[in-house]
Amino acid sequence: MALRNKLMQMLAGCAVLILAAACGSVGTGNNGGGTNTPASLEGTTWLLENLNGQPVITITTTSLRVEGSRISGSAGCNSYSGDYTGTADGKFGAEKMYRTAVLCMPDEIMAQEGAYMAFLNKADKYSIAGNKLTLKAPDGKTAVFIPQSQELAGTAWQATSIEG
After folding, report:
1. Bridge partners of residue 127, in order along the sequence
2. What's the half-sphere exposure (Cβ side, CA atoms, 13 Å) at 57?
3. Is the link from the previous residue into 138 a cis peptide, with omega within 30 of 0?
4. Degrees (nearest 5) of the Cα angle 86, 34, 70?
5. pLDDT per residue as tens digits for the range 141-163
6. What are the sequence ranges of the domains in the chain?
7. How far is CA 35 from CA 32, 105, 130, 146, 149, in A?
């Protein structure tokens, strides 16, 4: 029984370390952190600020990241990924998108996620002004993103206790 408890503690410790590593830096782009230097579309993790002129739900985070020919992020509850087909001159394209299939509560999270994914599939243009990324769809709808802060990027984390 003692061996089982030790094994469980070791597994829990590994899980904490993996989670801590996932909270670290997610890119090399200039992602804000209080600067006014414009970020670039590629290599920056962008956080959704508003969708179609409406502020986003603050109990979840919706993100977008472009790396080469891949696009990925969090849709608020589920992770998504797909092919990116945009160009440096402002053309934007997300194709062959898929996402995980987790149900989140409250219902507003899933409603916002559905609206975001539908928009992302239609968006065909992007622009960056200052530190804001704007995606535009042919029907005039927009999504505005801000770069994720890198204030804690590179910070080393150490688990000091594990409960449960």
Report:
1. 134
2. 18
3. no
4. 20
5. 999 999 998 776 667 778 888 88
6. 31-147
7. 5, 35, 10, 12, 10
Cβ atoms within 10 Å of 86's Cβ, excluding its own: 20
Q: In this predicted structure, what is the pLDDT of residue 30?
A: 35
Q: What is the pTM of this model?
A: 0.70
Position with higher pLDDT, 138 vs 9: 138
Can you read off the two tokens belonging to residue 90?
């402002």
Backbone angles phi, psi at 124, to 5 degrees: -130, 0
Residue type at 66? V
- Reported as type and span, the H/E element at residue 74 is strand 70-74
Give the span between the Cα atoms of 159 and 68, in whole angstroms: 34
Could you identify the residue written with the tokens 């002129």? Answer: 53
* Half-sphere exposure for 85 (CA within 13 Å, toward CB): 12
Q: What is the CATH T-level fold of the domain 31-147, as seen in this structure?
A: Lipocalin (2.40.128)
